[in-house]
Amino acid sequence: MATTGRVGHPLPYDVYRQAIERETLRFAEVVRDVDPGTAVPSCPAWTLADLMRHVGTLQRWFSALLTARVRERPSSRNVDPGPDDARERADWVAAGVPAVAAVLRDTDPGTPMWAWGEDQYARFWARRMLFETLVHRVDAERAVGRRSGVDPVLAADGVDEFLVNLPHAGSFAPAVTELRGSGETIAFRCADPGDGEWRVRLDPDGLRPLTPTDADRAGRPESQAAVRASAADLLLLLYGRRQYHEDGYEVTGDTVLLDRWFAHTAF
Questions:
Q1: Angle formed at CA 114 by CA 179 and CA 171, multiple of 5 degrees
Q2: Structure confidence by residue, pLDDT tens digits, 161-202
Q3: Are 25 and 94 in contact (CB under 8 A)?
């Protein structure tokens, strides 16, 4: 497992393509035949009907971007909004899987493209689509009282993807741009076999994920705050689906710094 800064070294592209299909169908299975008016506690003010529309439209938008190989930020999101009858939306989400699979299969992951994150290539969108879908699958399972599980390899990659792209998320999560400091470092440490960690530093001009080279150059100074947990629990923590004071997290250092981090990084 690697420290933060694996841009250019994500999981193999086919892993994302296959995992997106699995996660989308799993999401659709969870929400099918369930009251679409069920509240989704991890997405305040949303119901399962809202969540289904979000997942379906976002996948179709990502697919449109990949199909067009966009090189500039798009000005609109004109995609199929799904059926008005929320009871039909689970099938609508599932029905989009073949088209998503086809565009991912037909796209060279190294194609230069506009992306809001660090990696300006088509592979950015496959990686992003996976974790959007996976986290919302967990949201749906929790809303209906199902136990959730996340593959640890995917979870570790999701932690990396989140932290690497977070500095670029200000366009839709403006609080991120206000997260500054004077060099304080936060470590997220994985408790799964093969231990690893991701470090981020709060500089006067914003947050910065530390690459292995950065960390080695700095001599790996002690972090001011650290959270240790399984990769799955770290992923859900970073996405605001869990809290660090819950069972499963080992916290050391400055909790005020951690509170400031989480207050600014929710999206």
A1: 30
A2: 999 999 999 999 999 999 999 999 999 999 998 768 999 999
A3: yes
Output the CA–CA distances (angstroms, integers) from residue 59 to 33, 64, 84, 87, 119, in the order listed: 22, 9, 18, 19, 19
Whether 226 and 251 have beta carbons less than 8 Å apart is answered as yes
Whole-prediction pTM: 0.92
Q: What CA–CA distance (Å, rounded) separates 170 from 202? A: 15
pLDDT tier at 5, thresholds 50, 70, 90: very low
Q: Which residues contact 243 (CB under 8 A, 6 or more apart)?
A: 237
- The set of residues, in sequence order, having a beta carbon less than 8 Å from that of 102 and lying 6+ positions away, is none
Q: How far apart are CA 254 and CA 240, in angstroms?
A: 19
Instruction: Kindly report, residue by residue over 39-58, the tens digit of the pLDDT.
Output: 999 999 999 999 999 999 99
Could you give the C-alpha distances from 98 to 105, 137, 140, in angstroms and in order?
10, 18, 22
* H or E stretch at 184: strand 184-190
6 pLDDT exceeds 50?
A: no
Rounded distance, CA 132 to CA 55, Å? 8
Position 160: which residue type? D
Domains observed in the chain: 13-149 (1.20.120.450), 155-264 (3.30.1050.10)
